[in-house]
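Following the same procedure, the fold was encoded as tokens, giving this record:
***
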Amino acid sequence: MIGNDIIDLNIAKKESNWKRKGYLNKVFSKDEICFVLNQPNPELLVWLLWSMKESAYKIIHRETLIRKYEPWKLEGVVLSKHRTLFLGKIKFEKKTFLTKTIISGNILHTIAVAEGRSFDNLRIYENHLLKDKTNFLQSCLPENEYFNKDENGIPFILNTVYGIKKTASLSHHGSAIALLVQETSLPTNPLTSFP
């Protein structure tokens, strides 16, 4: 299972006042608030933790089909940082999700996978100057693959040659969009794979 979230930090700064009274308590645990407020750049950490939680939430929603976002119930921890790469984890009930966040200019993009899964075999498509979501999706996917959502609003990619659905996660904010596709092993010859 996969999830992702992308944040245009310039838009977040203009449209969201994370310093307003009660905001942090609605989104973060006491440990997370302490962590954020003791950092040299607390605003960046607010959006980093938010993005980690949102990415994990997309996995939870895919598994449960319940649309109930309660960010304070997802506990985020930043495990390591190297320049603009952050590795972290989110705990929710008895589940753990691993996250990888990359900051590129004013864009913060987080990918989440269920614990025990790998960040390998993922295709990532990003555009930081989005003008048209439909054109973006058509331009980044191979000719035989199409973006769609199921009856529960869960995104997937359909490979029309093999009839295979691939897990996908789509996120957009401001001028940024990201599509994450989990690769599956495909038969080498479609003609010999079906009876």
Summary: The chain has six helices and ten strands. Helices lie at 9-15, 23-27, 30-37, 42-64, 133-140, 190-193. The first strand starts at residue 2 and ends at 8.
